[in-house]
Design goal:
By secondary structure, the chain is mostly helical. The longest helix has 40 residues. Helix 1 runs antiparallel to helix 2 and helix 2 packs antiparallel against helix 3. The protein has a domain of 40 residues. Helix content is 84%, strand content 0%.
């Protein structure tokens, strides 16, 4: 354990940042799973309502990924790769 006051503060800051980054990463994973589930439902039954659900899920996931990149919780290339996976999933179902 650190004895110097500034070192103790750095430990606290690091722990706080670790928790924040973990929350972003967890939220991204959850939103991506919801999106992929919505895409599967849309593939099984392509209706305008299902397509709207897919678009809403994609928007939410994109937003959270962009915020995580902005906050440096994930690297920008990692964010771009995740967004590409989302777009590819929809394109495979609806190639237009």
């Amino acid at each position: 354990m650190a004895n110097i006051k500034s070192a103790k503060k750095r430990i606290q800051v690091g722990e706080r940042n670790r928790k924040r980054n973990k929350a972003y990463k967890s939220a991204i994973k959850t939103l991506m799973k919801k999106y992929f589930a919505a895409v599967r439902e849309y593939a099984a039954n392509p209706t305008p309502e299902q397509e709207q659900n897919v678009q809403q899920a994609m928007s939410a996931a994109y937003s959270k990924i962009d915020k995580a990149v902005k906050r440096k919780a994930i690297h920008r290339n990692n964010g771009a790769r995740k967004k590409a996976r989302l777009a590819k999933a929809l394109k495979e179902v609806n190639p237009a």
